[in-house]
From TrEMBL:
It is a multi-pass membrane protein. It is found in: Cell membrane. The gene is gdx_2. InterPro entries: EmrE-like, Small_drug/metabolite_transptr, Small_multidrug_res. The chain crosses the membrane at residues 33-50, 57-78, 84-100. GO terms for cellular component: plasma membrane. One of its GO terms (biological process) is xenobiotic detoxification by transmembrane export across the plasma membrane. The keyword Nucleus does not apply. Its main location: membrane. Gene3D superfamilies: 1.10.3730.20. Belongs to the drug/metabolite transporter (DMT) superfamily. Small multidrug resistance (SMR) (TC 2.A.7.1) family. Gdx/SugE subfamily. Keywords: Cell membrane, Membrane, Transmembrane, Transmembrane helix, Transport. GO terms for molecular function: transmembrane transporter activity. It comes from Zestomonas carbonaria. This is Guanidinium exporter.
Length: 101
């Protein structure tokens, strides 16, 4: 169950980051509310996951999935460039998390 909590927490982390972009400095009410809800939900689910998973595994995986998901959605939804440097950095993040696990 801890892994399910962690995956859901990571999904909320991605939603949190993407909502911040759409909130436009908290000037748009719906995306701004989504920022708050996603942040609270993500952290709450992460704490549930940490009941059974070590912090040295759970937190890096949460942040890595959040980072990877945000990069992917930034490219797909916002037209951000996927440069060679950005792609290499994503690969290194994945390698680091695999090494921790």
């Amino acid at each position: 169950m801890a892994w399910l909590f962690l995956m859901l927490a990571a999904a909320f982390e991605v939603l949190f980051a993407m909502s911040m972009k759409y909130a436009d400095g908290f000037t748009r009410p719906l995306p701004s509310a989504l920022v708050v809800v996603a942040a609270v939900a993500g952290i709450w689910l992460l704490t549930l996951a940490m009941r059974d998973l070590p912090v040295s595994v759970a937190y890096p995986i949460w942040t890595a999935i959040g980072t990877l998901g945000t990069v992917l959605l930034g490219v797909l939804l916002l037209g951000e460039a996927l440069t060679a440097t950005k792609l290499l950095s994503v690969v290194l993040i994945v390698a680091g998390v695999v090494g921790l696990k």
